[in-house]
Design goal:
single chain, Rossmann fold, three-stranded antiparallel sheet, 7 helices, 29% helix
């Protein structure tokens, strides 16, 4: 089933998505959250922190697994995803840092790190809710166009479009890592709930192609059409080229 929530703007999108995540935490305090980085989730994390500070949320039993990490950046690097998560969420709520997991991009044995990460997710009982953003080329995590849908956590060479998109966060384009560790699509598809957020007119084409187009490895997110419980929260701009007229829509 695909449920679509239309938000007026990024602020409303962030609040709606944070509501879904907070409901998961309240219903199952020991839940496993799959988390994402990038600009899209920042408003969500800010809202969750606000509710925590008001006493509405308790993260003490929550475990997390992040989608991906750059290869070659350690946790103290401000562009690493571990640093991002600490700064935007983990350092601001009462989560046990030992229960927060991000792939180790500095591992000596990177293939072994991938296998260990999948084993970790399995040992936690799987992911209850996986948060995703959506790349302009349809990538989810760092699963680039052409990647097999059957892969678990693996090493990926980043596409030029992804490097260009992320370059704004670095001093210069040359500083952007060329490789990353990412959860595979197989791992993502095993999550109980997938929550995908998309904001802005620049995402309108890929939202339409991913969820109203054919399922193809050239648009990795299109496989989410087959997920048993996909929730899309997108603003009006991101849905402007999709056939959504109501504030809440259920597809198939």
């Amino acid at each position: 089933m695909i449920s679509i929530y239309k938000a007026k703007d990024y602020k409303e999108l962030s609040r709606k998505a944070a509501n879904i995540i907070s409901a998961q935490i309240i219903m199952k305090p020991s839940c496993v959250l799959g988390l994402a980085t990038g600009t899209s989730p920042i408003g969500i994390y800010n809202q969750l922190v606000e509710w925590y500070k008001k006493g509405d949320l308790d993260f003490s039993e929550v475990s997390t697994v992040n989608l991906d990490e750059y290869i070659g950046l350690d946790a103290t690097n401000e562009q690493s995803y571990r640093y991002f998560m600490n700064y935007n969420l983990f350092d601001k709520v009462n989560i046990d840092k030992l229960n927060t997991n991000v792939p180790n991009g500095m591992a000596r044995d990177l293939e072994g790190e991938c296998d260990s990460y999948d084993s970790l997710i399995h040992s936690l009982g799987g992911i209850d809710l996986q948060l995703l953003g959506l790349g302009h080329n349809g990538h989810i995590g760092f699963n680039e166009p052409g990647e097999s849908f059957e892969k678990g956590t693996h090493i990926v060479d980043l596409s030029e479009s992804t490097i260009n998109a992320n370059a704004r966060l670095f001093a210069k384009k040359e500083d952007v890592p060329r490789r990353a560790i990412t959860m595979g699509i197989r791992t993502i598809m095993q999550a109980g709930i997938v929550l995908l957020v998309a904001s802005g007119e620049d995402k309108a084409d890929i939202v339409r192609d991913a969820f109203w187009g054919k399922i193809t490895s050239q648009v990795p997110a299109s496989v989410l059409q087959l997920h048993k419980n996909l929730i899309i929260v997108a603003d009006e701009a991101a849905l402007s080229k999709s056939p959504v007229t109501d504030n809440y829509t259920v597809l198939r």
